[in-house]
Write a structure and sequence with these properties.
The structure is a single chain. This protein is an alpha+beta fold. Helices cover 23% and strands 23% of the residues. It is elongated, with a radius of gyration of 22 Å. The relative contact order is 0.12.
Length: 137
Amino acid sequence: MKAKQEGNKLILTRESKDTWEVGDTITIDLKINENTSDGYHTFKELYEHRIWLWIALCRHNREWAWKSKKHSDGSIMKGWFILGIGSDAGTQMTYHLPLMYWDRLKDIDTVKRAYKYDGHTSNDVLNRLGKAKDENK
């Protein structure tokens, strides 16, 4: 079997006779989108779960949670807002959420501008979540 990639497609061509005829081709679309699945969940489902889990965590930690439609410099991402926990450098955990969730978070404090971004990465958020879990034992 010969395989070659053309853009987002993987093309497999049979080179010897077996269950296919010689020269038969199968084309597999490699494009990843919201419907891409691991066999159990699509990316769309997992992203929706992440959003609601983050909302639940923010509600559980309401005294530290906040939301803003603006970054600290006043810039915006059209159609998105920031939902965060922690305001000080080294404590921040934030995610951008679609604006459609804004009105569902009336119980979370609104700040005019997000707190100055401390440069946290996805790994920092995971470490901070783990640290918070350990502190609550």
